[in-house]
């Protein structure tokens, strides 16, 4: 594995400062690819649909096992 040259590594300051924190925060948030409103709505609807279907399936299977357990015991 190759080592990075010292010249390639960015200089960092020792210690913490609020201005450096917010500058780094802004730089990272600029890299984020935010979804469009249409994409956000459609993917949220898909998640809600899948959660509803999964919960319904679990409810039905639980009811089946409850009924079967009552028949056996």
Description of the structure:
With about 70 residues, the protein is mainly α. The protein has a domain of about 40 residues. Helix content is about 70%, strand content about 0%. It is built from two helices and no strands. The chain starts with 17 loop residues before the first helix and ends with a helix. It holds the Pfam family SecE. InterPro entries: SecE_bac, SecE_sf, Translocase_SecE/Sec61-g.
Largest beta-sheet details: none
Overall geometry comes to: elongated
Secondary-structure content class:
mainly alpha
Strand proportion: under 5%
Summarize the structure.
This protein is mostly helical and 73 residues long.
List keywords for this structure.
73 residues; mainly alpha; SecE_sf
Layout: helices, strands, pairs:
Elements: H1 18-31, H2 37-72
């Amino acid at each position: 594995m190759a080592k990075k040259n010292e010249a390639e590594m960015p200089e960092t300051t020792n210690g913490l400062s609020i201005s450096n924190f917010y500058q780094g925060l802004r730089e990272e948030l600029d890299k984020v690819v935010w979804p469009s409103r249409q994409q956000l709505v459609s993917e949220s609807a898909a998640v809600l649909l899948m959660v509803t279907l999964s919960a319904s399936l679990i409810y039905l299977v639980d009811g089946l096992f409850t009924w079967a357990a009552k028949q056996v015991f």
